[in-house]
Write a structure and sequence with these properties.
The protein is an alpha+beta fold. The protein contains 2 helices and 14 strands, in the order H-E-E-E-E-E-E-E-E-E-E-H-E-E-E-E. Strands 1, 2, 3, 4, 5, 6, 7 and 8 form an 8-stranded mixed beta sheet that branches. Strands 10-9-11-14 form a 4-stranded antiparallel beta sheet, with helices on one face. It comes from Shewanella decolorationis S12.
């Protein structure tokens, strides 16, 4: 008796191959969708984290704006309540008659805060170059706590009591020392946006004793735009009644010579993904306070983060 072995017919083979093809296409589609979701989720997480870090770095400085130890709330007048033991190289000067890194002898308010929009404002800070156009710049001057007992670092320091202050370089404290004075680190910070290649970066200028304001730190990648609105109190209750961009803040308001007082700052950041996603086209309009950014039409994901920062210290005595 002969045994016969039957194989698959041509039709059965073609049907099985077709089914296998559909299964393979389904697997590829699932893999592609999963990969796209991973990229999207990863980029949104990156946007959120970069924005959070940038705001946190700026918030500590801005909320402590104007802190000058025991003399907080009083303006500096050289020869009366203020003395400069040491000068500065690589100064950074902004608008106004007394808006350098250190107070000068002009009989005018020493600006502890000043800002502008790069490429739009007529004035700018002398130590900056290459700032991305249509992005805001903000400078902050303050003392950094806690007080130190041995001011020998690579910074500027201020000896302060309730009525006088002496500014000096680390390692060269004033002699004789002020009565009942404490020593604090003095800092001048400037926040701005400048590209590193094609990547926008939030940067900061920082004061040191030997290099002045010629120190530039890269803080957070992907910060593409910054808009700052300044909140002024009009009725003396220390609560902001109006917020306005730097171009609407007058000289008298910067110098706190009107009844209006600066009490809060709103910061808006447009955060951009570091890498492109060619499967995504960005045609979204973004609102940064009073400013709209649209017509980007590229392949970068973006996110707006913002916060309102209440100033803990008066720039000058308000009440």
């Amino acid at each position: 008796m002969t045994n016969f072995q039957k194989g698959m017919s041509l039709v059965e083979l073609m049907v099985s191959m077709l089914i296998g093809l559909f299964l393979t296409l389904g697997l590829f589609a699932m893999f592609s969708m999963s990969s796209s979701n991973v990229v999207t989720t990863s980029q949104f997480n990156q946007l959120q984290e970069n924005g959070r870090i940038a705001l946190a770095l700026m918030e500590r400085d801005i909320t402590q704006l104007g802190f000058m130890g025991d003399i907080t709330g009083t303006d500096f007048i050289l020869g009366t309540n203020m003395a400069l033991r040491d000068g500065i190289t690589n100064d950074c000067i902004g608008a106004g008659v007394n808006n350098g890194t250190l107070p000068n002898a002009e009989p005018a308010h020493f600006r502890r805060l000043w800002g502008y929009e790069a490429g739009k404002s007529a004035e700018s800070l002398t130590c900056l170059n290459g700032v991305n156009p249509n992005t805001d710049v903000i400078q902050i001057k303050r003392l950094i706590g806690p007080p130190v007992t041995n001011p020998n670092g690579e910074r500027y320091y201020m000896a302060v009591n309730s009525s006088e202050a002496v500014l000096f370089k680390g390692g060269n404290p004033p002699n004789p020392a002020l009565e009942n004075a404490r020593f604090w680190e003095y800092q001048h910070h400037i926040y701005f946006i400048k590209n590193d290649g094609s990547v926008p970066v939030l940067r900061r200028k920082t004061l040191t004793k030997n290099n002045g304001m010629n120190n530039e730190e890269q803080l957070v990648e992907g910060i593409e735009n910054m808009r700052i609105l300044y909140g002024f109190d009009n009725d003396g209750d220390d609560t902001a009644d109006s917020f306005m961009p730097a171009e609407n803040v007058t000289t008298l308001m910067w110098d706190n010579e009107l009844f209006q007082r600066l009490v809060a700052v709103r910061v808006f950041l447009l955060v951009r993904a570091i890498d492109e996603d060619k499967s995504y086209t960005n045609d979204t309009t973004y609102t940064l306070g009073d400013k709209e950014i649209k017509g980007l039409n590229d392949h970068y994901r973006r996110k707006v983060v913002s916060t309102t920062m209440v100033l803990a210290n008066p720039v000058l005595i308000r009440n």
